Fold this sequence. Notes:
The structure holds three protein chains of three kinds. By secondary structure, chain B is α/β, with parallel strands linked by helices. Chain B has helices spanning 8-18, 34-42, 56-68, 79-84, 86-95, 121-127, 143-160, 170-174, 215-236, 256-270, 288-296, 314-322, 341-355; strands spanning 4-7, 23-26, 49-52, 73-77, 99-105, 136-138, 163-169, 176-179, 207-208, 239-242, 249-252, 275-280, 282-284, 302-307, 328-332. The longest helix of chain B is centred in the middle third of the chain and has 22 residues, at 215-236. Chain C is an alpha/beta fold. The radius of gyration of chain C is 17 Å and the shape is globular.
Amino acid sequence: MKKEIIISGFGGQGGLAIGKNLVEAGMAEGLFVTWAPSYGPEMRGGTANCSVVLSDKPVGSPVFNHPTELIALNEPSLEKFEAGVLPGGVVFINSDVVTDKVSREDLKAIYVPCSKIAEEVGNPKVGNMVMLGAYVAQTKVLKPETIEHMIEEMFAGPKAKFIPLNIEAFRRGMACVE
Amino acid sequence: MEKELWKGNEAIAEAALRAGCDCYFGYPITPQSEVPEYMSAHMPKYGKVFVQAESELAAINMVYGAGGAGLRAMTSSSSPGISLQQEGITYLAGAEVPCVIVNCMRGGPGLGTIQPGQSDYYQCTRGGGNGDYRTLVLAPSNIQETVDCIQEAFDIADQYRNPVMVVMDGLIGQMMEPIEWKPYKKRELAPKDWAATGRYGREEHNIINSLYIDPELCDVHNKHLAEKYALIEKNEVRWECIDCDDAEVIITAYGTPARIALTALENLRAQGIKVGLFRPITLWPFPEKALHDLVGNDNVKVILDVELSSTGQMIDDIRLAVEGRKPIRYLGHAGGVMPTVEEICETAINALKEVK
Amino acid sequence: MAVVYEKTKGLTDVELHYCPGCNHGIIQKLVAEVLEEMGMLDTAIAVCPVGCSVFAYKYFSVDTLQAAHGRAPAVATGIKRCRPTQPVFTYQGDGDLASIGTGEIVHAAMRGEKFTTIFINNAIYGMTGGQMAPTTLIGQKTTTSQGGRTAEQAGMPIRMAEMLATLDGCVYAERVCVADIPNINKAKRAIKKAFEKQMNNEGFTFIEVLSTCPTNWGMTPIQAVQWMKDNMIPYYPLGVIKEKAMEV
Lengths: 178, 356, 248
């Protein structure tokens, strides 16, 4: 098993954090993981992105041009990275921000209304957790319990009141995937 | 041992603290500013010294002062800042003051780019400063190896009374990976009875100096240094060979390109193409003999060198080791553009076709 | 027989290489005497520059580091921060401190580094053979200002003590000379005060010593002393430039 994931959006949209959550959960499950911030020409054009590898073998290259999955949080990200996704790959789209559709027919597209669900759950900041839920439900490389446990650890102590909110967001994201 | 997720630059700083680094002097520069940031937050807690210097030039001279006074001293910077430190590095080498210098390399020349690069190979291994000197250069290719290198770098520096550089391209500084804090077995080191610590009853005063105005004494001093460098070459050279035994193509690379090459190697092997990876871990001393012997194998048809450099720099050392016996191909990019797995595969396949 | 004078233990027995009439020997003796009198020969660490006093590491009997040109204040910062209870000083000339090393001295003073700098201002580059220094006076002939320094070409001479005194981290700046016995005594008192303030952790302390260079000025030692008094002191006035009261 080897997942090479590009997560891309505007700076501040939380794409880098989704990546970090993925590697933390992967690490907790004993996978080999890397997280690399955007590099080279990808720096241009108003997107902040990161490259994540989850693998059952030690990771060679932490960077790649052909992700197995793309998580696009804004339109420039979809424009820039769609062409590179491996045939048969999956594109996750924040459909509240991105109105374009995935144009390639050899890709599976999953449209996740992250912002809308986050607001329904009660906090616009938990959109990332919605997207994470969709990713976990679709790819099945990580156990949902691992993510929920990670959320509990992330918000341990005085921030504990945010735990139910984040878990709810994560589960709603999972539910976006049939 | 439990794994922890660390960002490269922060892991470097923490590794230095764990290695007993007494003092850190640095100046902000992308992509290594997390090192001074981490140090500023954590060193005072342990009663250790952090100074944000007014320039990299001042920082390396603070290192000279602290190292010369017997402390474990460190600085870190990125390529243009390392250029500025060359004056200090030649003084450190000449006066035999141990220290650790981390270079989180970016692209050049000049201001270049803040993106990862490897075009400081000459500067690090040949010495950008004046005079006949060498700095031992460790070039890790992942964060675990970086952390292990940093810890050992302080011991190597003290053992040989010589500056040690740890160089990695900026990507290793900026990326995150799980690491383990392995218990580190410290080398047995002689007391620093040479240091300018204050005399405290010592009969003679200690002098930290690189000036030998008498030509004969300067010659003697240089011979002494040369002998030391020969000893380092004998004892400290490191490299890694992956799948080299039956390889027809040997890819040479260090740092992140070595990781990309490793993925390329897996892909090529899956296609039945016999590829191996030769990865120098010390850039100086360069694993010249190991590569020389490897290339002598009949099965080796061609060498492909991959670097984050437009012209290639390590390729010079590869040519010296290969001694013209086998053809060498080059693949490199600068400016933070990474060679891709696909590119490496294609170049390797083409190189093999050409020579067969 | 009663001992009336003894060489300070702060200096070694190595013969000085300085030219006849040069003031370095006197100034180094004063520093060494102060260190001895304050009982600091076992703890002091000196930083020597590039310039005529490049060999001072042979003369001072304390542990010494020889620094790159101009970098002594950075080197001293590294030492003093790691060995905060020990006396540390730099001994620098005008090319070293006022030209190539202005960045280092200004920032060390700004940070209030707790070491002492002895700054030898003789208005010329000695070791390299008499070139213009930042402190060379207007009209003064050197090998790189052969018609005499002009303000148009080289700007006005720099007054380092006054400049550093503007920085809050500098707690004490005094300019002295060693042209005669009263001035030598004053100079020694100033040097001692600087070390006392250093050991009190007050901040950065700076003593500028006006000095002669008969060889490169093309004068006899006696002419040089007179020239220094007539020309340098009017532009570089002697006395305490700054003394910050110790905060209680």
